[in-house]
Write a structure and sequence with these properties.
There is one protein chain. The protein is an alpha+beta fold. The chain has a domain of 160 residues: Beta Polymerase, domain 2, CATH 3.30.460.10. 49% of the residues lie in helices and 11% in strands. The chain contains 19 helices and 12 strands. The strands form 3 sheets. Strands 1-10-9-2-3-6-5-4 form an 8-stranded mixed beta sheet. It is elongated. The chain binds adenosine-5'-triphosphate and magnesium ion (MG). The site of adenosine-5'-triphosphate (ATP) has 12 residues, from helix 7.
Length: 407
């Protein structure tokens, strides 16, 4: 297998974006006589003129040796071993070339469905590249030589805006169904198309996502929705009918909530772009809201019993698919529980407006407007109330029909 080797000058890369820590690791490995490259998202995003989230390194140096060379490192991973090299400002993931040969001692172990159970055999770059998911993720970059090594036409795919699996898409999806979510994520992030033949396979095999640990699916959902391309992720997840796999408890009402989701995700993406904090709990509160909304009839005449019941039921059922950490489930519940308080102002309104979760609940309330035009008056009232001084607040409360003393 002879790769194409392209000089990085052809891409006019902004090499200032490469992490200094990453460069120092590569240079040290080179000095010790090893090969070392930036691989994956770091190369892909540099070529795409994006600012890479992080830089992964791959080398022919084995984990035990990496551990010895770098004092600030530790070996992690169960399914496959890799090394985390720690710096004050970042952790650089450094992996060893992996092999795909089955007759190697300690090589991959697959179950009856072809799923990888364990793989821990080291290999060459040629072997390593075949194990990567997509052509666009299979480029190796040596920043010192200034060379990009391309075995499968990843550079061409970047130019044509394609996400193509390496090898047979069905086999690769059965090996690791999470690749379905990864394909969708890269298509959403980069505005690329997933190779045509993969569509039918994803539609047929998407249920295998249920066999993946809820912790891993949770992480993938966050990447889909909290990385600045939530709107696109939502659209593609729906196109491939994967949204209903991830959120089966809202799938029967999903269509009616399209406007709600699109408005909410546009706002989420806007916040990401201006560098505002995004709370995982908030995104799950949005994603699961349709069911609470429907069951409780909150917009018209709320049924509190159904409201509380649906809140605990939906969060509990969703846990089986995406294990949301406890601190976020309590955030989700608070944001929802606060919603009726915007529609019923009264004695406790003042105190509510100082609540720890008020701001998040209010942002959520604003987003509800897209499908509940009847909230217009309440939204205007709250928008004024929120920033008013104490006297004005009392006035506003009194204007709502009840009398409040000044103290
Ligand atoms: P991101 O910008 O999200 O970091 P990335 O492509 O770097 O994107 P990582 O999850 O950091 O994604 O993985 C680094 C590289 O490891 C990928 O580019 C890909 O080559 C390989 N890889 C990761 N996950 C898988 C997988 N499930 N199957 C095959 N290869 C994978
Ligand atoms: Mg990465």
């Amino acid at each position: 297998m002879k790769p194409e080797v392209v000089n990085h000058k052809n891409f006019n890369l902004n090499t200032n974006l490469i992490s200094k820590n990453c460069l120092s690791i590569i240079s040290k490995l080179h000095r010790k006589g090893f090969q070392a490259y930036i691989v994956g998202g770091g190369v892909r995003d540099l070529i795409q003129k994006l600012d890479p989230k992080d830089f992964d390194i791959v080398t022919n140096c084995e984990p035990g040796q990496i551990r010895k060379i770098f004092k600030n490192s530790r070996i992690i991973g169960r399914r496959f071993k890799l090394v985390h090299i720690t710096f004050p400002d970042e952790i650089v993931e450094t992996t060893t070339f992996r092999s795909d040969s089955k007759d190697n001692e300690g090589s991959i172990e697959v179950n009856e469905k072809g799923r990888i159970l364990r793989d821990n055999s080291w290999g060459t770059q040629e072997e390593d590249v075949k194990r990567r998911d997509f052509k666009i993720n299979s480029l190796y970059y040596d920043p010192f030589k200034g060379e990009i090594i391309d075995y499968f036409g990843g550079i061409k795919d970047l130019g044509n805006k394609n996400v193509t699996f390496i090898g047979d898409p069905e086999k690769r999806i059965l090996e690791d169904p999470v690749r379905i979510l990864r394909a969708i994520r890269f298509a959403a992030k980069l505005n690329f198309s997933i190779e045509k033949s993969a569509k039918k396979i994803i539609l047929e095999q998407k249920h295998h996502l249920y066999e993946i640990s809820p912790a891993r699916i949770y992480e993938e959902v966050l990447k889909l929705f909290l990385s600045g391309h939530a709107e696109m992720s939502y659209k593609i997840l729906n196109e491939y009918k994967v949204f209903e796999i991830l959120f089966p408890h809202v799938s029967d009402v999903n269509n009616e909530f399209e406007d709600f989701f699109l408005t909410a995700f546009k706002e989420t993406d806007r916040r990401y772009k201006v560098g505002k904090k995004l709370n995982p709990g908030f995104i799950f509160a949005l994603l699961l809201w349709p069911k609470i909304f429907k069951k409780s009839n909150i917009s018209k005449n709320i049924n509190f019993r159904n409201f509380y019941q649906s809140i605990s039921e939906v969060t509990r059922k969703q846990q089986v698919i995406t294990s949301v950490p406890k601190r976020f489930t309590s955030f989700i519940k608070d944001v929802w529980m606060h919603q009726p308080r915007f529609q019923r102002t009264g004695r406790k309104t003042l105190r509510f407006s100082n609540n720890l979760r008020f701001r998040a609940a209010f942002d959520f309330f604003l987003l509800r407007h897209s499908i509940e035009p009847n909230l217009k008056n309440d939204i205007e009232w709250w928008t004024e109330f929120r920033t008013a001084n104490y006297d004005k607040k009392i006035k506003l409360l009194n204007s709502r029909g009840r009398k409040f003393a000044k103290n």
